[in-house]
Design goal:
alpha/beta; Rossmann fold; 6-stranded mixed beta sheet; binds pyridoxal-5'-phosphate
Length: about 400
Amino acid sequence: MNHNKKGYFGEYGGCFAPETLIAPLYELEEAYLKLKNDAVFNNTLQSYLKTYVGRPTPLYFASRLSDYLGGAKIYLKREDLTHTGAHKINNTIGQALLAKYMGKTKLIAETGAGQHGVATATVASLMDMECEVFMGEVDMGRQQLNVTRMRVLGAKVTAVKSGTRTLKEATSEAMRNWVVNLKNTYYVLGSALGPHPYPTIVRDFQKIIGIEAKHQIQETIGQLPNELVACVGGGSNAIGLFYDFLNETEVNMTGVEAGGQGLNLGQHAARFSGGKLGVLQGTKTFLLQNAFGQVMNTHSISAGLDYPAVGPEHAHLHSIGRVNYTHVNDKQALEAAFLLAKLEGIIPALESAHAIAYVIQHAPKSPSDYVMLVGLSGRGDKDVETLSKYMEANAI
Ligand SMILES: *Cc1c(COP(=O)(O)O)cnc(C)c1O
């Protein structure tokens, strides 16, 4: 691992947790290090991934999109076809299994758009565990569909009413709840964020995306792709796709952040284009903050990318120049979603549409033997209301 200290990726990451969480985080790390090499654990995980999640997910050659753009050949790694419709289930199923092996009986989680909450509620049912999901009151209003899904699955959804009543506060509340219920409770963190060991655990459970994609692209075209592209919220689907390719120096990698409505602070979530080094919720990384170090509110049309901090491993990959990070705005993401729907019959999640928007800009400038492999992190069912409003406003 490219750590100089435990839990660090270069100078980023670490474990900035309150005293009361140091022991449970250590217990988690110990359990994980033991189980990650345990044959029974791995066989059980593999079996769930195959028969329940639906892995391996297909690698699809988007020939109509490639022809339309008239440049690079575009392949889509279809995480949208997993059970519950996004890559999040890869992580929740791994962590739930870890919780079970640690003897825990209850899962708690934070959620923004509700995708991670749904994925956690799903695996709680599957593994016969209790489940409570913390969600900002504002997000609960915006994401009724996922609130209902979690409740149907038997989870308790607890409204968080502090601050901006969105994901950042929901995360703090989940951590507070964990501190007082450590004995029977496991905290399922939803992205490659938080204090050590979470960024490593989440990346390890998501790296299956890249392992499969590498095998599939070599089988299909007999070579590695020229470029990987993925959207970056906390960074779990992107690090999941990139990780197995990091040592393949000829493969370019691009992470696409949310440019929102423009690059003024407060209007976007492009941490690498306006962020500074800081600590938030247990990890040292790039953060959107004002001149006084106060963490800023963010904006994105896609709730899953709408977070002020980026995963610490991405901060490291940015600092060493291994991955290129860029951003597209709300409008470009929306247009990309419609184009993919029209040409390929695939309605992407608006998060994933950010990666497609980058491809729309760059594929036409590339030669026809240039291969772009794009992480399609999720499906767009949850976004139909936003798409509908966009159609009304633009007379589509
Ligand atoms: C949550 C989510 C994201 C953003 O999270 P990452 O940890 O950055 O992957 C992206 N796409 C979809 C479909 C999501 O649900």
